[in-house]
Amino acid sequence: MSHATELAAAAGSGDPRVGLRAVRALRRLLESLEAIQVDNARRHGWSWQEIADALEISRQGVHKKHAGRPAVGRSKET
């Protein structure tokens, strides 16, 4: 079973401590995956609007969240 699958199962736990910790870990995983894929889309020439449409959020929202941060997996010099 993958780590994400284990976390998803734990999120349904009857123990609130286990469930909430799993939700927190899933949220972190989701944020990381989103950043990776936004960077991937930008490297492929996607506009902020195209990314926003794919994520079903506003262009301003995706730009504000991702434009100012360093790309995931690359140094600032790259």
What does this protein structure show overall?
The chain has 78 residues and is an all-alpha fold. It has one domain. It has 4 helices and no strands. Helix 1 (3-11) packs across helix 2 and helix 3 (48-55) packs across helix 4 (59-66). The radius of gyration is 15 Å and the shape is elongated.
Provide a quick synopsis of the model:
The chain has helices at 3-11, 16-43, 48-55, 59-66. The chain is mostly helical.
Top keywords for this entry?
78 residues; mainly alpha; 4 helices; elongated
Please, how many helices?
4
Strand content bin: under 5%
Distance between the termini: 36 Å
Q: Largest sheet, described in full?
A: none
Helix content: 55-70%
**Strand count:** 0
Number of domain modules = 1
- Please tell me how large the radius of gyration is: 15 Å
Q: Which stretches of 5+ consecutive residues score pLDDT under 50?
A: none
Mean pLDDT: 91
Question: What is the general shape?
Answer: elongated
Reading the helices and strands in chain order gives HHHH
Q: What is the assembly state of the chains in this entry?
A: single chain
What structural class results from the helix and strand content?
Answer: mainly alpha
Which SSEs are present, and which pair or pack?
Elements: H1 3-11, H2 16-43, H3 48-55, H4 59-66
Helix pairs in contact: 1-2, 3-4
